[in-house]
Amino acid sequence: MTLLNPYFGEFGGMYVPQILIPALFELEKNFVAAQEDISFQKKFYDLLKNYAGRPTPLTLCNNLTQGTKTRIYLKREDLLHGGAHKTNQVLGQAMLALRMKKKEIIAETGAGQHGVATAIACALLNLKCRIYMGFKDIERQSTNVFRMQLMGAKVISVKNGSGTLKDACNEALRDWSKSYKTSYYMIGTAAGPHPYPTMVREFQRMIGTETKKQILEKENRLPDSIIACIGGGSNAIGIFSDFMDDKVNLIGVEPAGQGIHTGKHGAPLKHGRTGIYFGMKSYLMQDKEGQIKESWSISAGLDFPSVGPEHAWLSSINRAQYVSITDEEAINAFLILCKKEGIIPALESSHALAYALKLMKKNPYKEQLFVVNLSGRGDKDIFTVNNILEKKEKYNESISRNV
Amino acid sequence: MNRYPEMFKRLSLLKEGCFVPFVILGDPSLEISIKIIEILIKNGADALEIGIPFSDPLADGPIIQKASLRALSKKNTFSEYFEILKKLRAQNTQLPIGVLIYANLIYNQGIDNFYWKCANCGLDSVLIADVPIEESKIFYETANKYKINSIFICPPDADDEFLKKISLYAQGYIYVLSRLGITGIEDKTPSLSKDFIKKIKRYNSLPLLQGFGISNAIQVKKAILSGLSGIICGSAIIDIIEKNFTQENIMFKKIKDFTRLLKISTQ
């Protein structure tokens, strides 16, 4: 029996091979005990404050909204050590691993952000770590691979299947089912089998708690909407969690990739079906036979064919609203934020910003107050964006020549 | 209809162990896969465990993963799989046939619909690789409705509490893992201790089959001697398919020889 409810409505659960069940029970037991342990919480808080740099600021965008009555605040997770919200929860999980006396960490990574965060936490807390990464992602994200290696992590190339995040996830679970007695599996998002979705949310909850305090100080009221991007959904669930019972719109933005109609997207919440994959029941991108499809997004961090089960539930009960933004819209938002506010956002977070800007343009004279979770910084994405801009330029040149 | 008790009774009278080969349906193609299954039956399979290919088989090692992808690349449909299973049943009325499948494939076609089809094909059992006992309720109840046995897995480090639990649910046989981890070939697969096997038997009377890592005659003999009813062998057979599928006749011959060898080892 689990100590906590493994389900969010009909979503969630523990759909793993039987051998992993004891490992999940052990993890849950330790997580519950750590949540009640004041010294654990104190140490976690201390690391967040003095190592990672919390609280992160809430920044008002004055230039971006000029000529409108919209006010947009950015929750600046991009300023966190490591460059994204990921650092929060890996510190929590690494402390949990120590508490469980596990000296080895297993992790999976897509773009490398969770891998880098894991490597950071492991270096700091003197844990050995191995990180599974699809061979295609290793090629695409060589600087992140180097970062992980600099901090002492072993990056293992996954050649099975499509060689991307979903295969890295499978491979990490395979490793764990062999080695769980000595190793700890550090999942990178609020997805996977129970207790991960709950645990990762709790280790990201401070994003929402801080935001609430900060917006009340600055505006003396709650925002109309909170907007966050959704891959697995950890930054979104982190910032949503403190506003669940408030009269605030919670908006999650999935990647529409090259357009929902092309099938090249990563939007299972609105355009997938319920299924069972990666240890959980949730929305999935799958073909009519039930085989898992590959997702697509310009932003590697959103490129995942499923989504955390709590989001699936929030969508099913209409507590949160889920929308999608294409690669192109995200890149435009990326460029605008660079130019207008001097902030280079991650392409992931650019999806959330793009939707805020869309709402702003739709109703320029409506007084509205938005908080966008700027989940990460975009230094990692500048080459991707550059490639796209160059391609566009060439395309425009060839058009103008033909005209 | 369930054929496991009959089969185990017959083997125990003969004082033989049970040999269950496992292959992925449609690997490397539907036609060849059917021929392979026929060879397995003709050369000593006491029961069959048939894998339905899935895109993300996370309980399986590289050999079975690749087999699944080979099968999926042919884009066969579920109705085709079920048709083959139905024919197989018609040709082998006494042979226990089970399928191994991942949860999403069942969920996707509707749990009730899936088990109805299984019953319609005359299948004896279903093992869901990513559904532990803790999540099995709806699958289990539906399987019971259609008189399909639910097969459960017993880890090699199971404690008394788990053994008690599995004894309440297990049907057909218990799939005892040789070791932790995923499927694959290993020469050094440790044999299960006699004490552990005795302990499982204290809680239930179902036959025990050992699986994971079994690839040679010595392992099979050891398993039978240690008190198990038999073995399940998948990756080692599929490895022959992977290495030889471009030369069918050689592949067929190798599978035949290997099957015979393992069956003889159970005697």
Automatic annotation (TrEMBL), chain A:
GO MF assignments: tryptophan synthase activity
Database matches in InterPro entries: Trp_synth_b_CS, Trp_synth_beta, Trp_synth_beta/beta-like, TrpB-like_PALP, TrpB-like_PALP_sf
UniProt keywords, alphabetically: Amino-acid biosynthesis, Aromatic amino acid biosynthesis, Lyase, Pyridoxal phosphate, Tryptophan biosynthesis
Function: The beta subunit is responsible for the synthesis of L-tryptophan from indole and L-serine.
Family affiliation: Belongs to the TrpB family.
Description of how the protein assembles with itself and partners: Tetramer of two alpha and two beta chains.
Name this polypeptide is given: Tryptophan synthase beta chain
UniProtKB/TrEMBL annotation, chain B:
Keyword Magnesium: no
Catalytic residue positions: 49, 60
Catalytic activity: (1S,2R)-1-C-(indol-3-yl)glycerol 3-phosphate + L-serine = D-glyceraldehyde 3-phosphate + L-tryptophan + H2O
Domain of life: Bacteria
Keyword Transferase: no
Gene3D superfamilies: Aldolase class I
UniProt GO MF annotations: tryptophan synthase activity
Class in the EC hierarchy, top level: lyase
Biological or metabolic pathway of the protein: Amino-acid biosynthesis; L-tryptophan biosynthesis; L-tryptophan from chorismate: step 5/5
Keyword set, alphabetical order: Amino-acid biosynthesis, Aromatic amino acid biosynthesis, Lyase, Tryptophan biosynthesis
EC number of the protein: 4.2.1.20
A UniProt-annotated Pfam family: Trp_syntA
GO cellular component terms given for this protein: cytosol
Complexes and interactors: Tetramer of two alpha and two beta chains.
HAMAP family per the UniProt record, alphabetical: Trp_synth_alpha
Function comment: The alpha subunit is responsible for the aldol cleavage of indoleglycerol phosphate to indole and glyceraldehyde 3-phosphate.
Family of the protein in this entry: Belongs to the TrpA family.
Protein's recorded name: Tryptophan synthase alpha chain
Species this protein is from: Buchnera aphidicola (Hyperomyzus lactucae)
